[in-house]
Amino acid sequence: MVLNSLAGEAIVQNLRVLKPFGRFCELGKRDFYENTPMGLRPFRNNLSYFGIDSDQLMKECPGLTTRLFREMMALFEDGTLAPLPYTTFDASQVVEAFRYMQQARQIGKVVVTQRAAEHAAEQTNASAVAGASTGAMSRQPDALTANQKTLTIDPAGSYLVTGGLGGFGLRSAEWLAAMGARELVLLGRSGAASEEAQQGVARLEAQGVSVHALACDVADEAALSKVFARFGKSADADGIAPLKGIIHAAAVIDDALIRHLDAEGIQRVMTPKLEGARLLDHLSAEHALDFFVLYSSATTLFGNPGQSVYVAANHWLEGLAAHRRARGLPATCARWGAIEDAGFLARNEKTREALKNRLGGDALMADHALACLGKMISADQQAQALGLPGRSLGVLELDWGALARFLPTAATPRFEEIARRAGEDDSSQAQQDDIAAILAGLTGEALQTAIVEILKGELSKILLIDDTAIDVNKSVYDMGFDSLMGVELMTAVEVRLGISIPVMMISEAATLWRLAERLMHKMSNTDGEDAEISSEDQAMAQLVKQHGSEAATATSKRGEMVSK
Questions:
Q1: Dihedral angle at the C-alpha atoms of 531, 532, 534, 539, nearest 10 degrees?
Q2: Which of 168, 171, 270 is nearest to 218 (CA)?
Q3: C-beta separation of 410 from 419 below 8 A
Q4: What are residue 353's phi and psi, to 5 degrees?
Q5: Does residue 564 have a pLDDT over 70?
Q6: Helix, strand, coil distribution of the chain in percent, nearest 5
């Protein structure tokens, strides 16, 4: 028996492998609807052909469908059958899913998921970029992409935020309150002395949240130990509800180039992050935490001039998060990009603008970033429950084209997937201007050859073959080109050459040489109208030459109708 889902020539080859009295079961529909002819010679061996359309089965025979489905599910329940292996892609990765399947890289099925948590509209301005040692945007394990749960906060517990009396730390405390936290412990070296801290505490208390605003240096073990001694003593007047979560947001930023660094400056930046995180990790060991969050920076992904100590300190936090996960403890490390409306960058506009220019994108709003944090914590919780490794994520807006110009390591494999996902959207206008300047100095066959070389380069990326293997006089469809690739090539032409073309132009031209010729006509059209002449218009023009005014009148009328 052959169970077939392939089309065209594959059917003939499959029929050839059947022994006499064999059965051919056709699952595919393409040949049915295209009315593909098939010779009867193979059936001289007493073969049987079965066309199977489960859609019709469900529609025409619902009772039989129900019985078969129940029988099949019973086999799954008793272990006789097992689900097929599958690879998941998020809905935002649908192009990658098709490319993955097109290259026949999958084992089993390719599944596109629509995660329930993606409904949050505020996520549209925040790009989550995975960037551990392997780079960015790697796919989550299947268990994390499907059925992701939302973060839950225990109203009977308390939550500790270091650096929680100002900036992004205070905004994090307000986010916890909005998520359902009823008791917060906010630490700052000066307590609630500033106007910002006092107003923040007042806002929280107005929501019914019990706030403990404490003056405590998170790097002072004695002072921090006194704070931890108060957790879990709700009955005591001085007590605080059991500790359920920690957010370590404390930081000191003191930018300086390496040649200007001294021991005091290094210690000033390192101590709050490193020693504070170490003490939090040590003192929370006896507490059953739901999450342990460390605030790192997206600069650990790309580096940042003048922030070598700050970057190093954040790298250490990421190492601590990995160490906690290895010990079976909760840990979430968030690599934040520029936050526009809270914290250091909100107070230092020049630094914010410099960082935005370097990354090429907009700074994040605090609410958007914290909405991402809830997902990251939930994903890490699920990973821990399933015994899977968690990972540190970067949340930032970036323009890869702009960032890559400043990033010496942009071409390394670590960033290959970010660059590929950015595609030509991040190609600079300068690059397009350079191409236009080169082409402007060429005419005739030299111009056509130059355009062909550009098309070859784009097609080689799409087909994943070397450009030397592309025959410019051979139909692209004979090389495995399809309609999805046509859209990619059309987009590439628009970006590289600055002209818009319909996908049908690619199918009509078929070869790169002919496509380049048509692009030349379109580029030379100075009046802004489409210079492309359809085959029907060409035929009509020929009739005009042959039959004179009568055909010319017909052409004129046709032109009026088209314009109307």
A1: 50
A2: 270
A3: yes
A4: -65, -40
A5: no
A6: 55, 10, 35
- Is the pLDDT at 335 greater than 50? The verdict is yes
Residue 468: alpha-carbon gap to chain centroid: 32
Going 239 to 164 to 369 to 407, the CA torsion angle's sign is negative
- For residue 208, what are the contacts with CB-CB under 8 A and spacing of at least 6? 182
230 in Cβ contact with 142 (< 8 Å): no
pLDDT at 368 over 90: no
- The amino acid at residue 253 is I
Task: For the chain, give the percent of residues with pLDDT over 70.
Answer: 76
339 near 299, Cβ under 8 Å?
A: no
279 with 219: CB under 8 angstroms? yes
Amino acid at 356: K
Q: What pLDDT score was predicted for residue 495?
A: 65
Alpha carbon 365 to its chain's center: 19
- pLDDT tens digit sequence for 454-477: 888 877 777 767 777 888 888 888
Q: Which residues contact 28 (CB under 8 A, 6 or more apart)?
A: 4, 5, 6, 7
List pLDDT tens digits, range 189-206. Answer: 888 888 889 999 999 999
Q: What is the DSSP letter of 164?
A: T
Report which of 326, 244, 325, 322 is spatially closest to residue 288, judged by C-alpha positions: 244
Amino acid 175: pLDDT: 93
Residue-wise pLDDT for 374-402, tens only, equals 989 988 888 888 777 777 888 887 777 76
Residue whose token pair is 């990251």: 376
CA 258 to chain centre: 34
Helix ranges (H only) for 258-392 are 263-283, 299-302, 308-326, 344-347, 349-359, 366-385
Contact 4, 27 (CB under 8 A): yes
Q: Is the dihedral of CA 158, 162, 165, 166 positive or negative?
A: negative
**Neighbouring residues of 451: CB distance < 8 A, sequence distance ≥ 6:** 439, 497, 516, 519, 520
Looking at 43-173, which runs of residues are DSSP E strands? 48-51, 86-90, 109-113, 127-130, 158-162
- 16: enclosing H helix or E strand: helix 9-17
Q: How many CB atoms lie within 10 A of CB 104?
A: 7
- Segment 424-450 shows an average pLDDT of 64
pLDDT band for position 135 (cuts 50, 70, 90): very low
Residue-by-residue DSSP string for 478-525: GGT--HHHHHHHHHHHHHHHS----HHHHHHH-SHHHHHHHHHHHHT-
Q: Which amino acid is at 104?
A: A
Interhelix angle for 94-102 vs 483-497, to 10°? 120
Q: What is the mean pLDDT of the segment spanning 524-547? A: 46
What is the pLDDT of the chain when averaged over all its residues? 78
pLDDT in tens, 107-128: 888 998 876 444 443 333 333 3
Tokens 């003191």 locate to 254
Helix (H, G, I), strand (E, B) or coil at 4: strand
